[in-house]
Design a protein that fits this description.
The protein is mainly α and 149 residues long. The chain is 63% helix and 9% strand. The termini are close together.
Length: 149
């Protein structure tokens, strides 16, 4: 017995009409939104921004405050955030030199964006979210059964 449910292909739009999707892709590319979203979606980026939101911190303080991050990933992520202009690095004259990381003006502007996203997620109807998750889980089960059979 075949089901009418099929998996969404990666190229298919999700909750967006085809004509809107084409325009949205063009607009996203023109405004350089995609690289920003991709950077912010990385695992440790928002945790680092959250830590620096409170106050400037030394690297060792960041490391201690981010349970589970590796030394290498912290270094790479800080470099990416600096290259994107969200974090600035300040070397204070001392012996040994003291390096402090802080959010730049651009990094602090993320606060408004993240507040908006947070408010948007709180507006979601919990029963609607749970229903969507159940439907997605069911679709995944159907796809798994098809691939096994």
């Amino acid at each position: 017995m075949q089901s009418n449910v099929r998996a969404r292909q990666p190229t298919e739009p999700c909750h967006v009409h085809d004509s809107s999707r084409e325009h949205a892709d063009t607009e996203w590319d023109e405004l350089s939104v995609r690289p920003v979203v991709e950077l912010l979606a990385r695992r440790w980026v928002l945790a680092i921004v959250d830590q620096l939101w409170e106050r400037p911190m030394r690297r060792s303080q960041l490391y201690k405050g981010l349970d589970g991050i590796s030394d290498k990933i912290l270094t790479e992520t800080l470099r990416e955030l600096m290259a994107a202009g969200y974090v600035s690095r300040h070397v204070q004259a001392a012996t040994p030199p003291r390096v402090v990381y802080r959010l730049s003006r651009r990094g602090r502007s993320l606060g408004r964006l993240l507040d908006s996203i947070s408010a948007w997620t709180r507006q979601a109807d919990p029963s609607e979210v749970a229903g969507t998750q159940r439907r997605n889980d069911s679709a995944g089960s159907i796809d798994e059964a098809r691939s096994e059979g």
